[in-house]
Every structure is written in structure tokens, then in C-alpha cells.
Amino acid sequence: MEFALSEEQELLVDSVSKMLASSCSIDELRSQASGEKTFSDKINNEFIEMGLNGLLVPEDLGGSGLGILEASLISEQIGKFAAPAIWIGNSVMTPVCLSNGDNKELAEKWLPKIAEGSSTSGIAINEFISKREDNGLSVNDGKISGISIFAIDAEKSPDIIITAVEDELYLIETANEKIEISNLPTIDTTRVMSEITFHSCTAHKINGGKELIKKIIDSGRVVLSADLLGASQNMLDKAIEYSLERKQFNRIIGSFQAVKHMCAEMASDLEPCRSLVWYASYAQNDIPEEAHLTACHAKAHLSEVAHDIARTATQVHGGMGFTDLLGLHYWFKRIGLTRQILGGPEIVRKEAAISQGFLNN
Amino acid sequence: MDLKPSPEYIEFRKEVKSFLKDNIDMTGKARNPARPSKKESEWQDKLIKNGYAARTIPKDYGGYGAEPDVLKSRIIAEEFTNAQIPLGMANQGISMFVPTLLELGTEDQKKSWIEKTIKGEVIWCQGYSEPGSGSDLASLQTKAVDDGDDFIINGQKIWTSSAQFSDMMFCLVRTEPDAPKHKGISYILIDMKTPGIDVRPLMTMTGHAEFNEVFFTDVRVPKSNIVGKRGEGWFVANATLTHERGMLGDPNQASTRLKEIIDLMQSETINGDKLIDNPVHLDRLMRLQARVMSMSFNSLRSLTASHKGLDAKMAKLIVKLNGCQLNHDLAGFAIDLLGELGTIYGKSNHDHDSGRWQWRYMFDLGLIIGGGTAQIQKNIISEIGLGMPREPKPMQEGKK
């Protein structure tokens, strides 16, 4: 029994962290927020160079064949730097979808391209979890039509889009299809959520049904919880750093117990979250019977803790936290968006209760 | 990360299981929290002989003499708990005093006390807190005045659990009144039968006396009863405080409580509907379940660190603060589930839980305060864990 990261995992974290530290500054986040797209292209090229897009792609299809735990560790770093990286949909949920079940042809066609970064994949699965307004997709004669909102990693005209309609998964090769993609103006400018309209698009059915849809969502939720972990840890670190510089009443404010206790509470809430994220990530590959429940708990619990930390860490910064000068709000907003995507806490906790037989579906 | 046990531990778990199977007649037997009966003493001896109690205490001092292995200790705890067979005795003498003596005691002291303590022949209480010295423990005032081969002790201790049936007390007293407060304290062993000791039960909000006050009037204690060096008692005591904080906020207790709560929700009804069918209750249950899980995974992480001889740092520092609050929140949830019936606290036809959850809700508030208050824990976390400075001392009166 060993509940710790391996040396290789530590090295992976270190190299991703160094790459993001040098290329993902607050100024870059500002340029992204103002709508300049060059910055996210730069980050995505760095990811491709490091081979991160193929992290979960099996080795025989050109990837590294690693697991959700490694994906979460990278996601934690992405959250820490609020990096505008194409990640959860393209590099996590897509390989989980195509390398599971019996979809050899599609996997062999697309996963090598995903791994080398020559193709990208978007995930339009929101309506499976939460159908809003009159959005939603329908299938007629193998053709998909309709609107899906809050699609992930779809902003750069993806080559494929994976979606779910009536408990079945479909893959749409976008090249010759009529598809409109527009960006949703959410609070979070560090990542793009998209609205996709499909006009009678030819779709390949992916075998696996509801079970595989759930598995993909579980993997997405766990990896999002790691993003929340990184974002929260960064907000706490920044709050402590600021409290040790800022002086009032001739003292650094970090020497006041009122401030110290806010920081201690954040640390006390956050530290066990790291173990929950590790366990839930590990379970996705190694403890299948606990994969769904721990994924639900990781997503919901991290959302709650991150929400509190976003608020408290901003307060430790006083008025400066409220301004744009320090850019702390990028994390506040990133946490705010992550909390709601692939199911907000109440939706996810309901699923956790259902999965234990406490509630009927 | 590899949560699969290695063959050595699979084998060890089998051994434990087979021992428990051979001793199935002990199932459901509760331990007397005070003094062990003859049967309990025999059970304790058997556990020590087989390495399931006093496992890492050297053979010379009556223990089993195994190398420390936190994973094996955990397997023992898990299997005994699952089988509902009583584990080795647990009291402040065994969990706090013996480790201190092993680290800092003289050979004579080890020989005199360890074996008797682990076998339950000598019961200890802890004399640390005083009415005027709680969070600021180092300001303690119980005086020990030098008198030939002895000290004469005068003063008062409080929060002394089990003092009413203890044989001995490990106690902090001020032996050097002129030294700075942390350097004037000695750690001394006091025979509770010495003339001049008065133990008075301390009634708490639970309606029971879980603690005592102990008064010392001219109590004569031999100087040879000091553990460590004279004046270094603060250092000696800190060796045991770490042991205590590890015990409070234990995640296994939270997991057990969560199971009890799920049983409660499946058996209790309101207006004929089971509590478990109420989605509002379920949402709260799921929130607590995630917290319980996080804390038990956090303990796995600490366990791996200590197994490798590493310091788990923050993962360890937060256990008391987070774990005690979690236990208290679980008790509060159980009371809300029981609703108006959850307020019954005494003999009644409408009593559903023997007042258990109310008692826990009150006693656990005491645990949030005791063993280093939540606020002291936050100071420790922020200073040691986060590197924030100590609160500067206020300027003394008269100085500007």
C-alpha cells in the first residue's frame, strides 16, 4: 500500500509546472481575456511539444498510455496557473471514450492524431447531465441535429465532436458537416465554453451506451476537481504571500490572528481534498467499483471548498483582491465556472446518492 | 499510488483474521474504561503475547518487541474493529506516558513502569492543564519546592480524566520559579495515594463528570520521579502532546459514525416516510460522506509518509482541527435527523438512541476545545504549516 506520488509523477508535475510558470503569466491571462487568441495557441503548442495531448492515448496508438491520476496532476497545474489549455475534453474525455469499449476503427483513426496534436476533439455532452431551455440533440437516420451548449474544447474548430443523444454516444467528423460554433461569454475568460448547432450531421455511433457516457463524465469530473484543487491552492498561496507583504497598523497583516486563522481554515479544508482527488483519480483506472462515487464526491466537495477559498482568499487581499490589478479574480471566476460544468454540486451529490441505492433515478 | 497490499501484508491480515477466529468468544465484549477485570487482564496479556497490543514496546519492558510498522498496526485495528473484538487497552498511560518514557526515561523508570502500564496494572492520569493555564499551558503555577530528596507540591490541576481511579499521575510542575516560563517546568510522576491529594469530579454540560479537578496540598514526591532533566519538562511534555493530537480527530471514528447515521436514516420515519427518502437529508448526508472520505484518504497519505519515515506535514497538522469538527457536525446531523425526538436525554418511551447523539454533540464540543483549542490549532497550522509569523506580544503596561 502506497498512498503517494511516484518519482515519475513528481517529475511530470515539475516539468509541467515549470513550463506553465514561464509561459502563463498574469499579463498573458489579460491578453487572453481581451480576446487575443495567440496566447492560448502558444500554450497549446507547448502542450503538444511535451506530448501531453497523448497522455491518456494508448501507447500503440502513439500516446503515453498513462492514467487519470497523471491527467489530474497536470490538471492541477493548469488550474494553478489558470492556463487556457485545451485539455479536459480533448486530452482526457476523448481518449477515455475512444479507447474504451469496442470502437477500434474510430480509435485508430483519431487517437494518433489527437496524441500528436494534429487534430482536436470537442465534447458536447452537457445535455446528458443538464438539459436547459429547449436545447438538445436528436438523431434521425443516423444524422444529428440540434443545439448543445457548454461544449468543452470546441473553440478551435475541432476535427471531431463527441456527443450523447438518448443514452448513446456519437462521434461527428466535422470536416464536411454543417456545424456552427460560437463562444459563450461566461465569467471565466481563461477558458472557452461553446455553443454548437448541428444541422443534420452524419454521426458514427460509439459502442458503450450509458455506462461509457458515465465513465467519460466521471473522468471529466475528477480531472476538473484537480483543476479546482490547483486553483484553490494558488489562491491560498497568493493570500499568504500578500499577507506577509502588506502592512497595516505597523505590522504585516499576516501576523494578525484574524488573518492567520482565515488562512489556517483554508489549509485545513483544502489539504484532505488533495487526498480525495488522488484517490478518485486512481480509482478511475484501478478501483472500478468506486470510480463513480469518488468522482462525484471529488467534483462536488472540491467545488464547495474551492468556492469558500475563492471568497476567503480574495478577502485576505482586502480591496486589492477586488481590483483587476493583481488579477486574483481570474481564479475566482475559473472556480465559479468549474463548479457548474459537468454538473453543479447538488446535481452531482444526487448522483452520488443514487449510485448507493439511497434514491431512485 | 498503489493501494493494493503487498504479499507480506496480505499474509499478515490472514494471521490476524485467524487469531480473531480462534477468539470469537470475545466478540461484542466491551472494555471497562476504568480498571481491567481479571478477564480483561488475561485478554490484554494474550494480545501482547501475540503482538496485537504493545506491539512495538521492547520485550525487555514487557512488550512484543516488533519493528514499528504503521500498516500492520492499521490492519490490526481494522480487523479487530470489523470483528467487534476489543483491541488492546487504550488509555493516557499507554498512548502518551509510555512513548515519553521510552524516549526520555531512565532505565530504572522504564523497568519500573512500562510493563505494569501496558498490562493495565497501573493506571495513569495526565496533570497538565490548570485553571489559569489552558491554551497558555507553559504559564502553569503548580509549585514544586525543593526539600532534600523530595519536592513539596502545592497547586491545582483541571481536566484530569480518570483521576478518580488512577494510581499515578504524570504531571507538569514549576520547579524553577525564577526561570523563563518554558524553562522552569519539570515532568514528574506522582503516586495518587500520596497524602495531600484531593480529587473532585468536574461536572460538565453533558450531565456527567468526564473530568476531575485535582488539588495538591503539601504533597511530597521524590526527586527521582522526574522524567528527563529538571527544568526541561516542557520539552518532555511536547513529546506526548503530539501523540494525543494524533488520537483526537481519528478518521475511523467518523467513518463509523457515518455508518450509524445511514442505519438511522434507513430505520427512522417521519410521517411514515423513511428519512433516507428525503432528498434534503440525502444532500446533507452526501456532503458529510465526502468529508469523511477525504479525511480517511488523508490518513492513508499520512500513514504512507510515516511508514517511509517522512513527515506528512500539513496532512498531519490539520487532523485535530478538521477531524473534531467533522465528528461534531456528524453528531449535529444525527440530532437533526431525529428531530424533536433527538432532544430526549433521559429515560423515556420516546428515546430512540439512549441520548447518544446529544452526548456526543456536547462532549465533542469539549474535544474541539480540549487537547489544544481549535484556535490554537489554527495558530499551529498557520505558523508551522504556512510559515506565518507569531502574533507579536503586546507592549507591557507602563512602557510606551
Please, could you describe this protein's structure?
The complex is a heterodimer of chains A (361) and B (400). Chain A has 361 residues and is an alpha+beta fold. Chain A is built from 13 helices and ten strands. Chain A has a four-stranded mixed β-sheet with strand order 1-4-5-8. In chain A, a hairpin with a 2-residue loop joins strand 4 and strand 5 (168-173). The longest helix of chain A has 35 residues, at 209-243. Chain B has 400 residues and is α+β, with helices and mostly antiparallel strands. Chain B folds into three domains: 7-90, no CATH class; 124-232, Butyryl-CoA Dehydrogenase, subunit A, domain 2; 248-385, Butyryl-CoA Dehydrogenase, subunit A, domain 3 (Up-down Bundle). Chain B is built from twelve helices and ten strands. The longest helix of chain B has 29 residues, at 279-307. Chain B is globular. Classes of the chains: A alpha+beta (361), B alpha+beta (400). The interface between A and B is large, with 49 and 50 residues.
List the helices and strands and how they pair.
The complex is a heterodimer of chains A (361) and B (400).
Chain A: H1 7-23, H2 26-33, H3 38-49, H4 68-81, H5 88-99, H6 104-116, E1 121-124, H7 126-129, E2 136-140, E3 143-152, E4 160-165, E5 168-173, E6 178-184, E7 193-202, E8 204-206, H8 209-243, E9 247-248, E10 251-252, H9 257-286, H10 288-316, H11 319-322, H12 329-340, H13 345-355
Parallel strand pairs in A: 1-4
Antiparallel strand pairs in A: 2-3, 3-7, 4-5, 5-8, 6-7, 9-10
Helix pairs in contact in A: 1-4, 4-8, 4-9, 5-6, 5-8, 8-9, 8-10, 8-12, 9-10, 10-12, 10-13
Chain B: H1 7-22, H2 38-50, H3 70-83, H4 92-104, H5 107-118, E1 124-127, E2 143-147, E3 150-158, E4 168-174, E5 185-191, E6 197-202, E7 211-222, E8 226-227, H6 233-247, H7 251-267, E9 269-270, E10 273-274, H8 279-307, H9 314-317, H10 319-338, H11 356-369, H12 374-385
Helix pairs in contact in B: 1-3, 4-5, 4-6, 7-8, 7-10, 8-10, 10-11
